[in-house]
Amino acid sequence: xxxxxxxxxxxxxxxALCIGALGTGAQAQTPAPAxxxxxxxxxxxxxxxxxxxxGEAVFRNLxxxxxxxxxxxxxxxxxxxxxxxIERFDSKGQAEEALSALRAAxxxxxxxxTQGNSSAAASALIEAIGKHNERDAARQMLFLNYSAVxxxxxxxxxxxxxxxxxxxxxxxxxxxxSVLREDRQLKSVxxxxxxxxxxxxxxxEARNQLAAQRPDVKIVGDELHxxxxxxxxxxxxSKIKASGAQAxxxxxxxxxxxxxxxxxxxxxxxxxxxxxxxxALGAPAAMGDAGIGKVIAVADWFPNVPTPESExxxxxxxxxxxxxxxxxxxxxxxxxxxxxxxxIERAAEVNAASIAAQLEKAExxxxxxxxxxRAADHQFxxxxxxxxxxxQGSPGVKFDVExxxxxxxxxxxxTAQQAEQPHRCNMVRPG
Length: 431
Description:
38% helix, 13 helices, Rossmann fold, alpha/beta, 431 residues, seven-stranded mixed beta sheet, disordered N terminus
């Protein structure tokens, strides 16, 4: 088990305090130390196996986020300030292992759980936590979701105990489509995704939105592949090229995306990639010059958002994690921890139901980014941006990704109001 360090480096803590001040408008001051027992957060994630790199990247984000809270004195409670602490539980990327990890976290007395890299695992956790909380009111648990974006999780499967801090797949697709629909040269597209709830949702919404907004675009391929089990994507890339597609639209993430774009380059595919996650974890380096102007990604934030607050935020992260291989920072994960700290302070106790009641009203700002939780379905409402890959040093591309020499230039900004979508949640609240 690895725990977050409460010591930290002086320079990093100074940068973290600077970011905190940017987020809250507070004057710099010496914080009271966090001396109480740590508030433990269970990270249930694939930390081994084929998607381990994504789990470790999340861990770094959450460590940095908790260090920032702890640097300003921790979470302020009536009995004294308490630090936040991450405890790791390896799900191996499997839903059943995630449930086993949840039982281990319960046995350790942890009441706050976070997970994201798999909508299938998130769905299982939502159901298990709901049942647990009905059985054991004295040990209720809270689930914070930073990346599992199957729309059903805050619609048909919505739960009082579950809060999603990422934009769901339909929201992300709408943002991508705002760019794709303006590409009048595009006449054919190939849809490919991972064969589980999220990947299925992405392709379903792609079909719906293409039919509504670009009926002239022909879908020349539409297929799903096993998640995290394909070692060689050359057969898929060959089919994409043979189809004559001018673009690929995919929600693939992790190695499933990196290997796909690498195979596409190897077979000489010259079309565009409209992606959910093409801006990290090896994808830009795998595509190389072939991706310039052609790899398009959607996210809640990009390092090249052109504001001083955003630049200071990103520079602070790179100071904390200077290895280019560790360059994977997500604003939403930082906002999630800020929202949690805010909710605990307002609840004035570490109690899942009390914290949940306050999280429903959470509104947080960090490095110029403001977001709020929608109480009706527990879907975070935040800005979205669409960006295109280009060489570092090009206009709008000050920072590259993972030392690759390629970064992403923001070409479309959507306000939280523009990104917001209606929901189908019928929230049942305890009591």
